[in-house]
């Protein structure tokens, strides 16, 4: 049960030493109670108090890391049920299912194809991270073929503890998620996981059995768990996912306080329908979703959905400030400047590219605001934009002319820009990005 700020304060040293970064122990206690501080920030907590506080301040959904390197996925760790309350932090991992009946050569070809499914967007690299290797006798060899031919992380899928043990040993240091732990084999799977120091996913028949298995595995020494409720219909999978989140966050039931793994691949054989099911589960709390295959037409929409859901709703998606060349511009190419709101960037860059006029597009940090909003808020003023263009952006080293095009909606900053940019021609572009192609074809640099 979570403690109140006052209850936490009574367990703190009370010295107001400020080592934690808070002005007083009471302030630190309030921050700890609201999830804005970590207990480790206080170096002077007594051991007996630390034990009580650690249990009370533990996240309601235990975070578990699956995999390694750039493809490691953190499952769980969320603290709110609805995105508008705060934000969701740990994006759903995307996994493809591979049977160990495939040859090493076939597995190699598959994972190399999966690894190519990477997309650059708003300064991020969007990609799937995981492969679920399912089987028995060849589980270790198949899993080894995955990590030898890609950087994808692995989930091991076998009800044979001996096969899981061999595969976990083959993937030493790769931190695979192993399972399923069921009522029939949980003790043996727990033994493998404890020895290999890897997380476990459990498969239950229903939500009541989930609680039984989490207790049993925890008692067996396995703390890092991921839940598969066993649901294999779209409706039940969605209902269970929502019920688990509510039980952990609203009901504060620690038996359900773990991330989840869901298997659209075992709900339907149709990849398009799997993608639809996966989309609903990404929106409603799944930690990992498993498809039968990856291709661009299915992965890309899921990656974009995931990006939108796991972006802080209080902070718009932004593009990094800087120079973006479009169409191999040279020293005589036009220069445009706009804000770093990602939608603005994509619309403007798309229209510039469509014009077939090579240009330099300057993106100025406006805290993620659109042109009109940024101008109204003083984040896209003439002085600031002028300094950015003339001194900070570095564009003067790439061009011979002194012309810059500003958005039509920011026409009011023209005068201040011209004062800041002595000798420059500041041109007012169209208000709508759709009119940029015609404008650019007719525009002449000074």
List the helices and strands and how they pair.
Layout: H1 5-10, H2 25-33, H3 47-57, E1 64-66, E2 73-75, E3 93-99, H4 104-115, E4 119-121, E5 124-126, E6 130-134, H5 139-149, E7 153-157, H6 161-170, E8 177-181, H7 186-196, E9 200-203, H8 207-219, E10 225-228, H9 234-249, E11 259-262, H10 271-283, E12 288-291, H11 296-309, E13 322-326, E14 335-339, H12 342-355, E15 359-364, H13 371-376, H14 382-392, E16 403-406, H15 414-420, E17 425-428, H16 436-442
Parallel strand pairs: 3-6, 3-12, 6-7, 7-8, 8-9, 9-10, 10-11, 11-12, 14-15, 16-17
Antiparallel strand pairs: 1-2, 4-5, 13-15
Helix pairs in contact: 4-5, 5-6, 6-7, 10-11, 12-16, 14-15
Outline:
The chain has 446 residues and is α/β, with parallel strands linked by helices. It contains 16 helices and 17 strands.
Structural features, described:
The N and C termini lie far apart (69 Å). The protein has helices at residues 5-10, 25-33, 47-57, 104-115, 139-149, 161-170, 186-196, 207-219, 234-249, 271-283, 296-309, 342-355, 371-376, 382-392, 414-420, 436-442, and strands spanning 64-66, 73-75, 93-99, 119-121, 124-126, 130-134, 153-157, 177-181, 200-203, 225-228, 259-262, 288-291, 322-326, 335-339, 359-364, 403-406, 425-428. The protein has three domains: 5-57, Electron transport complex subunit B, putative Fe-S cluster (3-methyladenine DNA Glycosylase II, Chain A, domain 3, Orthogonal Bundle), CATH 1.10.15.40; 64-309, Dihydropteroate synthase-like (TIM Barrel, Alpha-Beta Barrel), CATH 3.20.20; 322-442, Rossmann fold (3-Layer(aba) Sandwich), CATH 3.40.50.11600. Helices cover 38% and strands 17% of the residues. The protein has 446 residues and is an alpha/beta fold.
């Amino acid at each position: 049960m979570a403690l109140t700020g006052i209850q936490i304060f009574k367990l703190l040293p009370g010295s107001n030493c400020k080592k934690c970064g808070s002005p007083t122990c009471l302030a630190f206690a309030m921050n700890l109670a609201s999830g804005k501080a970590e207990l480790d920030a206080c170096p002077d907590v007594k051991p007996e108090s630390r034990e009580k506080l650690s249990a009370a301040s533990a996240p309601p959904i235990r975070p578990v890391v699956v995999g390694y390197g750039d493809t490691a996925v953190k499952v769980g760790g969320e603290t709110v049920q609805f995105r508008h309350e705060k934000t969701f932090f740990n994006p759903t991992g995307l996994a493809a299912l591979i049977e160990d009946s495939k040859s090493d050569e076939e597995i190699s070809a598959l994972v190399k194809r999966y690894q190519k499914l990477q997309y650059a967007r708003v300064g991020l690299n969007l990609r799937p991270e995981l492969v679920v290797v399912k089987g028995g006798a060849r589980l270790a060899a198949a899993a080894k073929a995955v990590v030898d031919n890609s950087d994808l992380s692995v989930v091991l899928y076998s009800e044979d503890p001996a096969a899981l043990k061999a595969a976990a040993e083959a993937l030493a240091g790769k931190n695979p998620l192993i399972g399923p732990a069921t009522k029939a084999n949980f003790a043996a799977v727990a033994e493998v996981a404890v020895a290999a120091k890897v997380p476990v996913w459990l498969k239950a028949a229903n939500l009541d059995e989930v609680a039984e298995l989490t207790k049993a595995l925890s008692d067996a020494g396995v703390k890092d768990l991921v839940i598969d409720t066993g649901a294999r219909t779209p409706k039940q999978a969605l209902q269970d996912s929502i019920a688990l989140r509510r039980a952990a966050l609203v009901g504060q039931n620690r038996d359900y306080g773990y991330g989840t793994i869901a298997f659209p691949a075992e709900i339907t054989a149709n990849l398009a329908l799997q993608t639809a099911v996966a989309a609903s589960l990404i929106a409603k709390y799944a930690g990992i979703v498993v498809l039968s295959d990856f291709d661009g037409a299915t992965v890309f929409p899921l990656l974009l959905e995931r990006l939108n859901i796991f972006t802080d709703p209080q902070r718009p998606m932004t593009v990094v400030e800087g120079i973006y060349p479009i169409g191999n511009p040279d020293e005589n190419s036009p220069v445009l400047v706009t804000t770093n709101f990602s939608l603005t960037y994509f619309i403007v860059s798309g229209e510039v590219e469509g014009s077939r006029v090579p240009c330099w597009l300057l993106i100025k940090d406006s805290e993620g605001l659109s042109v009109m909003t940024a101008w109204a808020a003083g984040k896209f003023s003439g002085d600031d934009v002028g300094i950015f263009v003339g001194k900070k952006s570095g564009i003067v080293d790439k061009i011979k002319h002194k012309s810059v095009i500003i958005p039509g909606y920011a026409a009011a900053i023209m005068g201040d820009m011209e004062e800041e940019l002595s000798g420059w021609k500041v041109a007012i572009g169209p208000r709508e990005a759709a009119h940029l192609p015609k404008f650019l074809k007719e525009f002449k640099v000074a």
